[in-house]
Structures are given as C-alpha cells and as structure tokens.
Amino acid sequence: MGATSVASPAPLNSAPSSFPSLKALKFTTKQQELLIRVSALALIYVLAFVVRLFSVLRYESMIHEFDPYFNYRTTLFLTKNGFSEFWNWFDSESWYPLGRIIGGTLYPGLMVTAALIHRILHFFSFAVHIREVCVLTAPFFASNTTLVAYFFGKEIWDSGAGLVAAALIAICPGYISRSVAGSYDNEGVAIFALLLTFYLFVKAVNTGSLAWSLASAFGYFYMVSAWGGYVFIINLVPLYVLVLLVTGRYSMRLYVAYNCMYVVGMLLAMQIRFVGFQHVQSGEHMAAMGVFFLLQVFYFLDWVKYILNDIKLFHSFLRITLTCAITVGVLALSIGTASGYISPWTGRFYSLLDPTYAKDHIPIIASVSEHQPTAWSSFMFDFHILLFLFPAGLYFCFKRLSDATIFVVMYGLTSMYFAGVMVRLILVAAPAMCLVSSIAVSATVKNLSSLVRAKSKSPQGSGKPLSGSKAAAKASADQSLPFQKNGAIALLLGALYLLCRYAIHCTWVTSEAYSSPSIVLAARGHGGGRVIFDDYREAYYWLRQNTPPDAKVMSWWDYGYQITAMGNRTVIVDNNTWNNTHIATVGRAMSSYEHEAYEIMLSLDVNYVLVVFGGVTGYSSDDINKFLWMVRIGGGVFPVIKEPDYLVNGEFRVDKGAAPKMLNCLMYKLCYYRFGEMTTEYGKPPGYDRVRGVEIGNKDIKLEYLEEAFTTSNWIVRIYKVKPPKNRW
Amino acid sequence: MAKGTNDAQLLIQSLRKAYASTPTSLKIIDLYVVYAVATALIQVAYMAMVGSFPFNSFLSGVLSCVGTAVLAVCLRIQVNKDNKEFKDLPPERAFADFVLCNLVLHLVIMNFLG
C-alpha cells in the first residue's frame, strides 16, 4: 500500500507558516507497521488490565476467596517486619497447638513481588496501602503475560501470530478465572513466570546462547518461588529434550541451552526453603536429572564419533560406553528408589497420572472442588473458539516443524491432558491454547488476505519473460477458481465474526462468572434491586472486636485463613491442610454428639466455634453441604466415625426421616439452633431449610456445653462460645 | 581374549591420535573439565566416608564442580571452529557468557554453602 500522505502538496504551499509541514508525517511502510504493532500491543496491555476490574467496580477493592487472605496476611507481615523476619517466621496463630513454620512452607514469590511493587511506589511517593497493591497485582501481571505471549508468538511463528496470541490471552477466560483483581493468589504471578521461562528457554534453544539460557534459569527460579506447579516445567523441558534427541533434531544449541538452565536453575531453585533438596531427592524431579546424564553421554559419544572418523572402532567404543552407562544408571535408580532415598511421587501429583487414586486413598485431596475432572462444558466455557482453533494450529505447526514449534506442540498436548484431569489446570493450558490458536488465526488470515490482495494479472501483461510465466500460471490459477477473491473475502469476514463472538463471550463470562469475591454475596431482591450479604466480614469483625485476643476458634478448614487474616484470632485448622490428623480431629468433633465433642474441644483449648449456615438465604456452600466430607475425613483417621450412621438408605437427609446420629450431632445442633422458630419463606412452615428444600427434623435443640455468641444478620455465619467446665461442686 | 585387548588397544591408540590434532585452546578447556570432574569425584568419595551432613554444603560443592565443568563444555562447543552453528559467534562473546554464568553459579553456591 502506498504511504499515507495526509495532505496533497497544493494547500501546503498556501499556508506555510501556521502548520508544520505535514509531509514530515509521511511514514514508510516499515514505520507504519511498527506503529500499528506498538499501538496494538499497548491497547492489548491496557485491555488485559481493565477486563479484570469488574469486581472492583461492582463491590469494592477487596481480597477474594480463601487462599488470597493467607497471602495477604503474609505480605502484610513482610512489609511491616522485613524480609529476614518473614523468611524465619514461625506462626503460632494457626494450627493451635502445633503452629506452622510459615517461612519454610510457603512459596514467597508472590509476596515478595507485591512487597517490592509497594516499596517502589512508596519510593516515588505514591502512598498506596498494601491491600490495593495486592488486589491489583494479578491484573498487572496478566498484562505482562500478554507482552511475553507476543514475543513468544514472534519466536515460534512471526509477529502477526504474536499479536494474535497477545490479544487472545488478554481475554481468555481460562486465565481470567484465576487472575481477576482481588484474586491475590500464586497463579496470578505463576502463569507469567511459566510463559517467561518457556519463552526464554525456546529463545536459548533457537540461538544457542549461554546468556539466554541463564535468563531462562532465572525465569525458572522465579517460577519455583511462585507456585508448586513448577514441577510441570521441570518435567516438560526434559521430555522436550528427549523428543528432540529421539527424532534426531538435536544440535549443539540444545546442549548449551538445557545444561546451563538445568544446573543453574536447580541451584537457584534449592534456595527456596519449601522446595529444599527435592531436586535431587524427589521422584518428580528425577526425569530432569536422568535427561541431564543422558545428554552428557549422548554428546560425548557424538564427539567421539566425530573425532574417530572410523565406524568399526566407534561401534566397539559405543558398546563399551553404553553398557557401562546403562548399568550405572539402572543401578543408581533402583538403589535410590528401593532404599527410599528417592521419594515416590506425592499424592497431589500422582493423582494427575492416576485420577482415581485420590478418591480412594486421600479424601482431603478429593474433596477440593478444583481438583475434580473437567467437564466438557468447562472447556467450552473457558476456551470458546480456541477449542477448534487448537487442532488447526497443530496442523500449521506440523507443516512447518522447527525446534520452537515442536516445543509449543508438546506444551499444548501435555497441558491439555492435565487440564482434562483437573479443573484447576485449565489455567496452565490457557497460554498453550492461545499460542497454538494464534498460529492458526494468523496463518489463515495471512493466506486469505494475500488472496484478496492478489492483483488479477491479464495474460498480455508484463513484458519480462520470468514474471510473464508466473503471471501466466497465476492467470490460469485465477481462471480455475473464478470466485477466489470473493470466497476469500467471505472467509475473512467469517473469521472476523468468530473473533468478535470470542471477545463478546469472554467479556460476558468474566462479568457473570469470574468476578464474584466469594466473601461478599449478592442477590436480586424483591424489587429487582441488588441485595448484598456481607455476613462473613460481619462475623470476622465481630470476632476481632468482641473476643479476648488469645481466643481460639474452631471451624472447618475452609475458613481458617480468613479468620486469622480478618478476625485476627488463633485457629485450630486452616486451608494449608498439612496435618490430616488435626483436621480429622476437628471433623470428628463436628460429627460427634455434643458431650463427646466437648471433650475434644476442651483438649484443644477451643473457646469459640464458627459454622456457616445457608438455610435462611439459600446459600448452598455451607457447612451442612460439606458435612459428609467432614465425616469422611474424620472417619479416615478415627474409625469410630462411620459414614453410614449419618445416611438413611445411602441418602443424606436433614428432615424428620434423617438418621438419629445426624439429628443430634454437633454440626446439626449448631447450624439449626433456634432455626425451628424461623420462617424463611412465605407459605412454608417454620424451620424450612431453603438449601436442602425440606423442613428440618429436630427443631427443639438445646445446647448444654455451648452458648450462642453471635449470628450474623442473614444467619450465614454463626459463632458459639464454649462454656468452661462446670465446678466439681 | 586377545582380540578383545587388541581391539581396545587399537581403540585407545586411534583416540589418542585423533585427539592430538585438536587445537591447544580446546585442550586447555578439556583439562579444566577433567580437573572439575575429578574434584567432584573426590568430594563424593569424601562424602561416602564421612556422611552427607550438612547436605546443602555437599550439594553446593559437587554442583559447583559439575556446573563449571558443564559450562566449560558449553564454552568449548561455542569456541570450536568446527561447529557450523556457532560460526558467527565471536569467541570473546562466548567467553564473556562463560564468565557471567560462572559468576552467577558461584554466587548461588556461596549462598547455599551454609
């Protein structure tokens, strides 16, 4: 296309002094292209940030859900007390009476990042509160991820694919779900680190430079500090190296890239206390070490073959070396595994390979809703058109195989498998889907637009013989497909329509499904107006202001982080779930009769009990719906709790036909205390539970060892005080 | 068997002959690699004798030897004129990369030594 000339030459001469010469604005094609690219990237950067701000605009700037409250509390501690205190922090306010070594059992990347941003902003005199920084960290890093996706797309295909990848990942719902404003969780930063590490590694393999490989080692270090999902990187990269070796596409650059990244990356990763020595002791990391040794042997043999120049001698040398290497390797591996030095795959990652493992053996992992296998509707919801663009992109990748496209194909396929096993891992597959789909979109649009722009050459056109033959060929091709240009325009419009629908879908999904803070509930009232239920914060602030500072609160582990962060009181169990027996003790207490539970509560020094009850409002994630998990987890450690005791014909009921143990257990009593007098719905009897849809069985509840301390305005959170033991006389 | 030892002798001789033709700079790098690997093996032997406590010190010692050996091999690959892929990489740049990576490696080692 010709350069844009903003004004024709004639008027310019008539007004020489007032306007600067507009001819200076005449850009060359290259400059135009750069301008378009930079402005598109800038818009995508802002878009990625802004689309995640729905909940801040609708509610307020607050931290969502459960896990982010722990991260917020630790970041607060870090900014107040400095890094050394944070690194060596022993917390006595959770897991009473055991305590928790927080410094050694968390991934510090997120907290350190937020604290660093906070410090930089304060240095420039922006006096923002750390909570605002925490709320907006995830959208900020999502914007950075789009930039990395652009460079990654440019590396594997071209800059057009990079732009499309950046645009796709800016609004992809699979990524937005864990990185909205307020979702201050490890994944917000970890996906940025993951994509950065992969990009730097692919760059290192493409250039063979030690500097890029060092950068990818630092990217890996950041990923290890941010999220436990780094295990994916340390297994995918060796698998990729293995695939390259097996298919014969190896080169010297691969050796340089992998070795530097592995050794320096492993050393850096071991600086994180939580990871510790796992890189040399855990079965999940052994693939990387195995491939490391394999690479040394392989390239040594390759070098020997090169300098020997004699096939027969080399074969004998090969035989000797291979037998030695294989014997040593197998011996080391078998001794390590058999003696238990190399620990087997832990439950969380083993259940990825065998999805039925957790359900049978580890109920705590099975009970988390994010760990369930993914339904097709979730895939459609989170990926939309990327679902069919992904295979199309795979086709293009296979058409133009290079080291980089092989990597992206492997990343896509493995992450799709894991996304199918666990809902939470759709997040890890999202960047791969966007990258591969962007190749499909970019290549298709490029082909179609080149068809549209092809000038139909007349047969008697150019004089040069070379272009003449080409023109003749093109003319014949044109003649064979007379409506080629129209077809191409139609297909382009179709592609544009699909992308518009994708954008609409993503915005709708973000607005409806992924922008709820979970701690503040909203519903439509009678007149259509919005009703806000702020019961959780009401209860936590009541705890903060009306209980003694050393009070201990017993609740189910879901609420532990929120109670310590907002209520500022000691809890018995929290979301870290590191001690299954302790959680089982709480589960046993909740499912026992009141006098048995009282013994357990006295042994744990419990002062207050907190339960969540949704019967009045219809809030369905309450403790009665979670009750069977409490029974299962408690029963897993204490055989005295048997699940069939609480069921009637295998059915979980709370009405008159419920099991007698269910009607008299502590959880039932605490949730339904005084509920029998309450009318919840017009036309229904008092004591009608709106979640279960039945009238409760035991309305006449009397508490002997506890007394009601506080019930929130919508009865969602109920707090009970444990009475001290009676005097002997 | 006589044929076996004959084969092995022939192998060693031809290896020695082929290796003699490599340039001196590459031979120096090879010597450095052998020295680093030997140090690592000595450390492993010492650990086998006295036990592995504190483990982080042992790991940092062994990994510094292995790391610097591996980095030296990478330098050798990049500097070797027979490698077509690194034809337009100036050897100064390769050496600077080598120094930088070693610096980072040893800084981390010193932090990890405990």
TrEMBL record, chain A:
Bilayer topology term: Multi-pass membrane protein
Single annotated GO MF: dolichyl-diphosphooligosaccharide-protein glycotransferase activity
Main EC class the enzyme belongs to: transferase
GO cellular component: endoplasmic reticulum membrane
InterPro entries, per database record: Oligo_trans_STT3, STT3-PglB_core, STT3_N
Residue stretches spanning the membrane: 34-54, 101-121, 133-153, 159-177, 189-214, 220-243, 255-274, 286-308, 320-342, 379-397, 404-420
Domain of life: Eukaryota
Family to which the UniProt record says this protein belongs: Belongs to the STT3 family.
The protein's name in its UniProt record: dolichyl-diphosphooligosaccharide--protein glycotransferase
Organism, scientific name: Rhynchospora pubera
The organism's taxonomic lineage, starting at the top: Eukaryota, Viridiplantae, Streptophyta, Embryophyta, Tracheophyta
From TrEMBL, chain B:
Residues passing through the membrane, by range: 31-49, 55-75, 95-113
Pfam family, one: DAD
Pathway: Protein modification; protein glycosylation
Protein location: Endoplasmic reticulum membrane
Membrane topology summary: Multi-pass membrane protein
Keyword match Thylakoid: no
Keywords: Apoptosis, Endoplasmic reticulum, Membrane, Transmembrane, Transmembrane helix
Chain segments annotated as coiled-coil in the UniProt record: none
UniProt keyword Coiled coil, yes or no: no
GO biological process, one term: protein N-linked glycosylation
Record's GO cellular component terms: oligosaccharyltransferase complex
Protein family (similarity comment): Belongs to the DAD/OST2 family.
Assembly, per entry: Component of the oligosaccharyltransferase (OST) complex.
Reported function: Subunit of the oligosaccharyl transferase (OST) complex that catalyzes the initial transfer of a defined glycan (Glc(3)Man(9)GlcNAc(2) in eukaryotes) from the lipid carrier dolichol-pyrophosphate to an asparagine residue within an Asn-X-Ser/Thr consensus motif in nascent polypeptide chains, the first step in protein N-glycosylation. N-glycosylation occurs cotranslationally and the complex associates with the Sec61 complex at the channel-forming translocon complex that mediates protein translocation across the endoplasmic reticulum (ER). All subunits are required for a maximal enzyme activity.
Stated name of the protein: Dolichyl-diphosphooligosaccharide--protein glycosyltransferase subunit DAD1
Taxonomic lineage: Eukaryota, Viridiplantae, Streptophyta, Embryophyta, Tracheophyta
